[in-house]
UniProtKB/TrEMBL annotation:
It catalyses: 4-amino-4-deoxychorismate = 4-aminobenzoate + pyruvate + H(+). The keyword S-adenosyl-L-methionine does not apply. It comes from Streptacidiphilus fuscans. One of its GO terms (cellular component) is cytosol. Its cofactor is pyridoxal 5'-phosphate. It is an enzyme of class 4 (lyase). This is aminodeoxychorismate lyase. GO terms for biological process: amino acid biosynthetic process; folic acid biosynthetic process. InterPro entries: Aminodeoxychorismate_lyase_IV (IPR017824), Aminotrans_IV (IPR001544), Aminotrans_IV_CS (IPR018300), Aminotransferase-like (IPR036038), BCAT-like_C (IPR043132), BCAT-like_N (IPR043131), Class-IV_PLP-Dep_Aminotrnsfr (IPR050571). Its EC number is 4.1.3.38. One of its GO terms (molecular function) is pyridoxal phosphate binding.
Amino acid sequence: MQIWVNGRLQDAEEATVSVLDHGMTVGDGVFETVKTTDGRPFALRRHIDRLERSARGLGLPAPDRAEVERACAAVLEANPTELGRLRITYTGGLAPLGSERGEAASTLVVALGPTVRRTGATAVVTVPWRRNEHGATAGLKTTSYAENVVALARAHQHDAGEALLANTAGRLCEGTASNVFVVVGGRLLTPPLSSGCLAGITRALVLEWTDAEEADLPYEVLQEAEEVFLTGTLRDVQGVSRVDERELPGAPGPVTAKVSEIFAARAAADLEP
Ligand code: PLP
Protein backbone atom coordinates (compact mmCIF):
# COMPACT_ATOMS: atom_id res chain seq x y z
CA MET A 1 0.00 0.00 0.00
CA GLN A 2 1.38 3.34 -1.08
CA ILE A 3 0.30 6.41 0.87
CA TRP A 4 1.05 10.09 0.41
CA VAL A 5 2.99 11.74 3.21
CA ASN A 6 4.21 15.30 2.97
CA GLY A 7 4.80 15.66 -0.72
CA ARG A 8 5.46 12.11 -1.90
CA LEU A 9 4.21 8.58 -2.15
CA GLN A 10 5.69 6.20 0.38
CA ASP A 11 5.28 2.59 1.39
CA ALA A 12 2.64 2.60 4.16
CA GLU A 13 4.72 0.22 6.29
CA GLU A 14 7.66 2.57 6.26
CA ALA A 15 6.03 5.98 6.05
CA THR A 16 6.39 7.99 9.23
CA VAL A 17 4.99 11.11 10.83
CA SER A 18 6.71 12.40 13.95
CA VAL A 19 5.31 11.24 17.31
CA LEU A 20 5.56 14.93 18.22
CA ASP A 21 3.20 15.95 15.44
CA HIS A 22 0.62 18.33 16.92
CA GLY A 23 -2.10 16.14 15.41
CA MET A 24 -0.88 13.29 17.61
CA THR A 25 -0.12 15.17 20.81
CA VAL A 26 -3.12 17.50 21.02
CA GLY A 27 -5.48 16.40 18.25
CA ASP A 28 -4.69 19.54 16.27
CA GLY A 29 -5.80 18.30 12.89
CA VAL A 30 -8.66 17.93 10.43
CA PHE A 31 -9.67 15.13 8.13
CA GLU A 32 -11.93 13.92 5.36
CA THR A 33 -13.15 10.49 4.31
CA VAL A 34 -13.88 10.35 0.59
CA LYS A 35 -15.76 7.49 -1.04
CA THR A 36 -14.16 6.08 -4.17
CA THR A 37 -15.86 4.04 -6.86
CA ASP A 38 -13.86 2.31 -9.58
CA GLY A 39 -10.86 4.30 -8.43
CA ARG A 40 -12.65 7.65 -8.74
CA PRO A 41 -13.37 9.91 -5.77
CA PHE A 42 -16.93 11.06 -5.10
CA ALA A 43 -17.57 14.78 -4.50
CA LEU A 44 -13.85 15.46 -3.98
CA ARG A 45 -14.23 19.21 -4.48
CA ARG A 46 -16.79 19.42 -1.66
CA HIS A 47 -14.50 17.38 0.60
CA ILE A 48 -11.53 19.65 -0.08
CA ASP A 49 -13.75 22.70 0.52
CA ARG A 50 -14.72 21.28 3.92
CA LEU A 51 -11.10 20.32 4.73
CA GLU A 52 -10.17 23.92 4.02
CA ARG A 53 -13.03 25.28 6.18
CA SER A 54 -12.15 22.95 9.05
CA ALA A 55 -8.45 23.90 8.82
CA ARG A 56 -9.37 27.59 8.84
CA GLY A 57 -11.60 27.01 11.87
CA LEU A 58 -8.66 25.50 13.78
CA GLY A 59 -6.35 28.29 12.66
CA LEU A 60 -4.21 25.93 10.56
CA PRO A 61 -2.61 27.28 7.40
CA ALA A 62 -4.85 26.57 4.42
CA PRO A 63 -4.03 23.24 2.80
CA ASP A 64 -2.66 23.42 -0.73
CA ARG A 65 -5.71 22.32 -2.77
CA ALA A 66 -3.62 21.34 -5.77
CA GLU A 67 -1.41 19.15 -3.59
CA VAL A 68 -4.44 17.48 -1.97
CA GLU A 69 -5.87 16.72 -5.41
CA ARG A 70 -2.50 15.47 -6.67
CA ALA A 71 -2.08 13.33 -3.57
CA CYS A 72 -5.53 11.72 -3.96
CA ALA A 73 -4.91 10.98 -7.64
CA ALA A 74 -1.46 9.54 -6.91
CA VAL A 75 -2.73 7.27 -4.11
CA LEU A 76 -5.61 6.01 -6.24
CA GLU A 77 -3.30 5.33 -9.15
CA ALA A 78 -0.76 3.53 -6.98
CA ASN A 79 -3.42 1.32 -5.38
CA PRO A 80 -5.91 0.26 -8.05
CA THR A 81 -9.10 -0.77 -6.31
CA GLU A 82 -12.73 -1.42 -7.09
CA LEU A 83 -14.25 0.52 -4.25
CA GLY A 84 -12.80 2.08 -1.16
CA ARG A 85 -12.23 5.28 0.71
CA LEU A 86 -9.55 7.90 0.81
CA ARG A 87 -8.60 9.30 4.16
CA ILE A 88 -7.11 12.77 4.05
CA THR A 89 -5.48 13.91 7.29
CA TYR A 90 -4.06 17.40 7.69
CA THR A 91 -2.47 18.37 11.00
CA GLY A 92 -0.55 21.08 12.83
CA GLY A 93 2.70 19.28 12.01
CA LEU A 94 5.86 18.69 14.02
CA ALA A 95 6.00 20.85 17.12
CA PRO A 96 8.44 20.02 19.95
CA LEU A 97 6.68 19.45 23.29
CA GLY A 98 5.62 22.65 24.94
CA SER A 99 5.88 24.68 21.76
CA GLU A 100 3.24 26.14 19.48
CA ARG A 101 2.52 24.36 16.25
CA GLY A 102 4.95 25.28 13.44
CA GLU A 103 3.19 27.71 11.08
CA ALA A 104 4.59 26.25 7.88
CA ALA A 105 5.01 22.68 9.05
CA SER A 106 1.60 21.12 8.50
CA THR A 107 1.45 17.42 7.81
CA LEU A 108 -0.65 16.04 4.94
CA VAL A 109 -1.31 12.31 4.74
CA VAL A 110 -3.56 10.65 2.18
CA ALA A 111 -4.21 6.94 2.61
CA LEU A 112 -6.62 4.47 1.06
CA GLY A 113 -8.76 2.24 3.23
CA PRO A 114 -10.73 -0.88 2.48
CA THR A 115 -14.39 -0.73 1.74
CA VAL A 116 -16.51 -0.65 4.87
CA ARG A 117 -19.96 0.15 3.54
CA ARG A 118 -22.71 0.36 6.12
CA THR A 119 -25.73 -0.90 4.25
CA GLY A 120 -29.05 -2.34 5.43
CA ALA A 121 -31.08 -0.79 8.21
CA THR A 122 -29.37 -0.25 11.55
CA ALA A 123 -30.38 0.26 15.17
CA VAL A 124 -29.39 3.51 16.91
CA VAL A 125 -29.19 4.61 20.54
CA THR A 126 -29.63 7.94 22.27
CA VAL A 127 -26.89 8.91 24.74
CA PRO A 128 -26.66 11.19 27.80
CA TRP A 129 -23.76 13.26 26.39
CA ARG A 130 -24.41 16.53 24.57
CA ARG A 131 -22.81 18.01 21.47
CA ASN A 132 -21.74 21.58 22.24
CA GLU A 133 -23.19 23.63 19.39
CA HIS A 134 -21.44 26.72 20.82
CA GLY A 135 -17.99 25.09 21.14
CA ALA A 136 -14.94 26.41 19.30
CA THR A 137 -14.83 23.34 17.07
CA ALA A 138 -18.59 22.88 16.48
CA GLY A 139 -19.17 21.85 12.90
CA LEU A 140 -15.48 21.28 12.14
CA LYS A 141 -14.22 17.87 11.06
CA THR A 142 -11.31 17.63 13.47
CA THR A 143 -9.24 14.57 14.33
CA SER A 144 -10.39 14.91 17.96
CA TYR A 145 -13.07 12.23 17.67
CA ALA A 146 -12.71 10.78 21.17
CA GLU A 147 -16.27 11.79 22.18
CA ASN A 148 -17.62 10.13 19.09
CA VAL A 149 -15.63 6.98 19.80
CA VAL A 150 -17.11 6.77 23.31
CA ALA A 151 -20.66 7.35 22.04
CA LEU A 152 -20.24 4.74 19.29
CA ALA A 153 -18.93 2.22 21.83
CA ARG A 154 -22.17 2.78 23.79
CA ALA A 155 -24.12 2.00 20.61
CA HIS A 156 -22.16 -1.21 20.09
CA GLN A 157 -22.90 -2.29 23.68
CA HIS A 158 -26.57 -2.17 22.72
CA ASP A 159 -26.15 -3.98 19.39
CA ALA A 160 -26.70 -0.72 17.55
CA GLY A 161 -24.67 0.71 14.69
CA GLU A 162 -24.81 4.39 15.59
CA ALA A 163 -25.40 6.77 18.51
CA LEU A 164 -27.41 9.96 17.96
CA LEU A 165 -26.62 13.03 20.02
CA ALA A 166 -28.58 16.04 21.18
CA ASN A 167 -26.96 19.45 21.59
CA THR A 168 -26.79 21.43 24.84
CA ALA A 169 -30.26 22.88 24.17
CA GLY A 170 -31.66 19.34 24.02
CA ARG A 171 -32.26 19.55 20.26
CA LEU A 172 -31.52 16.72 17.85
CA CYS A 173 -28.02 17.13 16.36
CA GLU A 174 -26.26 14.22 14.57
CA GLY A 175 -24.63 10.82 14.91
CA THR A 176 -20.98 10.01 15.63
CA ALA A 177 -20.28 9.70 11.91
CA SER A 178 -23.58 10.58 10.31
CA ASN A 179 -26.30 13.18 9.94
CA VAL A 180 -29.87 12.31 10.79
CA PHE A 181 -33.18 12.76 9.00
CA VAL A 182 -36.69 12.07 10.35
CA VAL A 183 -40.11 11.82 8.76
CA VAL A 184 -42.77 13.59 10.84
CA GLY A 185 -46.34 14.00 9.61
CA GLY A 186 -45.09 13.04 6.15
CA ARG A 187 -42.45 15.81 6.10
CA LEU A 188 -38.79 14.97 5.70
CA LEU A 189 -36.72 16.97 8.20
CA THR A 190 -33.10 17.29 9.33
CA PRO A 191 -31.48 19.49 12.01
CA PRO A 192 -30.00 22.80 10.79
CA LEU A 193 -26.25 23.45 10.93
CA SER A 194 -26.91 25.73 13.93
CA SER A 195 -27.61 22.53 15.90
CA GLY A 196 -23.84 21.99 15.87
CA CYS A 197 -23.92 19.12 13.39
CA LEU A 198 -21.28 18.64 10.74
CA ALA A 199 -22.16 20.04 7.31
CA GLY A 200 -22.33 16.52 5.91
CA ILE A 201 -21.85 16.22 2.17
CA THR A 202 -24.41 13.44 1.89
CA ARG A 203 -26.82 15.57 3.96
CA ALA A 204 -26.32 18.53 1.61
CA LEU A 205 -26.97 16.37 -1.45
CA VAL A 206 -30.15 14.91 0.07
CA LEU A 207 -31.34 18.48 0.78
CA GLU A 208 -30.56 19.44 -2.84
CA TRP A 209 -32.00 16.36 -4.50
CA THR A 210 -35.19 15.81 -2.46
CA ASP A 211 -37.86 17.90 -0.73
CA ALA A 212 -36.17 17.51 2.66
CA GLU A 213 -36.14 20.63 4.85
CA GLU A 214 -34.08 21.84 7.78
CA ALA A 215 -35.95 22.08 11.10
CA ASP A 216 -34.99 22.60 14.70
CA LEU A 217 -36.18 19.37 16.33
CA PRO A 218 -36.49 18.14 19.92
CA TYR A 219 -34.32 15.10 20.73
CA GLU A 220 -37.55 13.26 21.62
CA VAL A 221 -38.65 13.39 17.98
CA LEU A 222 -36.71 10.14 17.63
CA GLN A 223 -39.32 8.45 19.79
CA GLU A 224 -42.20 9.59 17.56
CA ALA A 225 -40.91 9.91 13.99
CA GLU A 226 -42.55 7.75 11.35
CA GLU A 227 -39.13 7.06 9.83
CA VAL A 228 -35.54 7.83 10.76
CA PHE A 229 -32.50 7.53 8.51
CA LEU A 230 -28.80 8.37 8.62
CA THR A 231 -26.62 9.89 5.93
CA GLY A 232 -22.86 9.73 5.57
CA THR A 233 -20.06 9.01 3.15
CA LEU A 234 -19.72 5.35 4.14
CA ARG A 235 -23.44 4.65 4.42
CA ASP A 236 -25.07 6.97 1.84
CA VAL A 237 -28.70 6.73 3.06
CA GLN A 238 -29.21 4.13 5.79
CA GLY A 239 -32.58 3.32 7.37
CA VAL A 240 -33.00 3.06 11.14
CA SER A 241 -34.80 -0.03 12.41
CA ARG A 242 -34.73 0.69 16.15
CA VAL A 243 -34.21 3.75 18.37
CA ASP A 244 -33.29 2.53 21.86
CA GLU A 245 -36.18 0.15 22.72
CA ARG A 246 -38.50 1.52 20.02
CA GLU A 247 -38.74 -0.75 16.99
CA LEU A 248 -39.41 0.79 13.57
CA PRO A 249 -40.78 -2.23 11.76
CA GLY A 250 -40.34 -2.41 8.02
CA ALA A 251 -37.32 -0.09 7.95
CA PRO A 252 -36.31 1.31 5.56
CA GLY A 253 -39.74 2.91 5.28
CA PRO A 254 -41.17 4.27 2.01
CA VAL A 255 -39.68 7.78 2.28
CA THR A 256 -36.24 6.43 3.22
CA ALA A 257 -36.38 3.94 0.34
CA LYS A 258 -37.31 6.70 -2.11
CA VAL A 259 -34.53 9.03 -0.89
CA SER A 260 -32.06 6.16 -1.06
CA GLU A 261 -33.10 5.43 -4.63
CA ILE A 262 -32.82 9.09 -5.69
CA PHE A 263 -29.42 9.38 -4.01
CA ALA A 264 -28.04 6.25 -5.65
CA ALA A 265 -29.23 7.30 -9.11
CA ARG A 266 -27.95 10.89 -8.87
CA ALA A 267 -24.64 9.91 -7.27
CA ALA A 268 -23.96 7.26 -9.93
CA ALA A 269 -24.67 9.78 -12.66
CA ASP A 270 -22.45 12.45 -11.19
CA LEU A 271 -19.22 11.75 -9.31
CA GLU A 272 -18.54 15.47 -8.96
CA PRO A 273 -21.85 16.82 -7.67
N1 PLP B 1 -21.36 13.94 11.19
C1 PLP B 1 -20.15 13.52 11.62
C2 PLP B 1 -19.74 13.79 13.03
C3 PLP B 1 -19.29 12.83 10.73
O1 PLP B 1 -18.09 12.41 11.15
C4 PLP B 1 -19.73 12.58 9.41
C5 PLP B 1 -18.90 11.88 8.44
O2 PLP B 1 -18.07 11.09 8.70
C6 PLP B 1 -21.00 13.02 9.02
C7 PLP B 1 -21.78 13.73 9.93
C8 PLP B 1 -21.50 12.78 7.62
O3 PLP B 1 -20.81 13.59 6.70
P1 PLP B 1 -20.56 13.15 5.19
O4 PLP B 1 -21.90 12.93 4.57
O5 PLP B 1 -19.84 14.31 4.59
O6 PLP B 1 -19.73 11.92 5.23
